[in-house]
Structure formats: structure tokens, C-alpha cells
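Quick start: read one record
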Amino acid sequence: MATINIYEQYFEAELTANGVDRHAALVMLIADSEAGRIRYEAAATFFPHNSEDDFAVSYDAYFSEVLCDTAGRRSKKRDKTYLEVLREHIDKLAEQAGGKVFWDKPLRDARYE
């Protein structure tokens, strides 16, 4: 399966998981495609970020939701559709975990594939 992180961006965030305070999150829109199927997933991983240069992402506080799993292939139109609803899905995942992403406080510029 070909996996592509269509979008990635680091934001200030808050969450306590496994007894560790997390102060940042890496937010992603991921596409997987194989044999005529496409799957889009919204994902966020929260990590400590205890200093300005601490981007040691840990995956013990990783949350994801499948947005689409259907026949077809990746397209710019589909990418755009799922990018438009990414924040609401990430907010839901963060809230369920007891955390929050601060969208107005990016730590780095967004990366698009």
C-alpha cells in the first residue's frame, strides 16, 4: 500500500497521556492507496515539546479516524475535500482524548505533498 502524508503541521496543544503532559501535536492527513482503493485518515500525535527545539514525536498518544475507504484513487479534488474537514475531525479526536489543538499557534509551516 502506498502511504502519503498529504498534509502535516505542528501546533501547540495540550493533553496528558500515560502520565506525561503533552504541549504540541503533529496533525496529519494521510492517504493510503492500493489496487484501486483509496483510504483517507485524519491523525494527530501529541508529544511533550518541552523546549522550542523539542520535536521528538512520540506515538503513545496517537489518535486517528478513517474519513473515507472506497474504490477509486487519490485526486486533488479528494485531497481538498478532506483537508477542508480535517480540523473538525482532529478537534473531535482531541476532545475524546481530553486534549486540545491550538490552531492559531502553529509551531512550523505546513507541509503539503
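Residues 2-112 form one domain.
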